[in-house]
Amino acid sequence: LDDTMGPAAFIMSEGKLFGPTYLHVGLDFALPILMIGFAWFAIWLATDRQVTQWINYLRRIAANPVSRPDLTALRHLQHAHLHAVPFENLDIRCGRPLALDEAALFDKIVTRRRGGICYELNTLFAALLRALGFQVSLLAAEVATGETTFGPAFDHMALLVVIAERRFLAD
Hints:
The chain is an alpha+beta fold. The chain has five helices and five strands, in the order ββαααααβββ. It has a three-stranded antiparallel β-sheet with strand order 3-4-5, covered by helices on one side. A hairpin with a 2-residue loop joins strand 4 and strand 5. Mean pLDDT is 79; it is low at 1-46.
């Protein structure tokens, strides 16, 4: 092969792999095929990273993988999470800003093995449950401050998990 001919690529046509094909020869045909291939590779890579991420989360909370999203699995995961990840508000006390995006929460709670406030813990726990096939909604909540009084609206966040048309509160 001659380096002056341009970058080589393999082209799939009618179930057969042809190559090397040079991009400057068949750019109209080759480029879309390469773009589709790169897109699938990116999806595979992202999916692989996500699977690894959730496996690491399960390890963090010392939970066994679940075979299906049922009530037994939810109880197992909730118990494991409550015993492994502490509620803590150190960032608030230290004046650090809170980040509620999944990547930042994963880094804080799983990678750095920290705890967090309800918004942090339940946001990431909801993402784990969804990844495992649960139907989850975020709920705004008020904390009871007495028998008939409550704190400010949106002072707490909990999860609503629906399993077989039954609703469960996870917090």
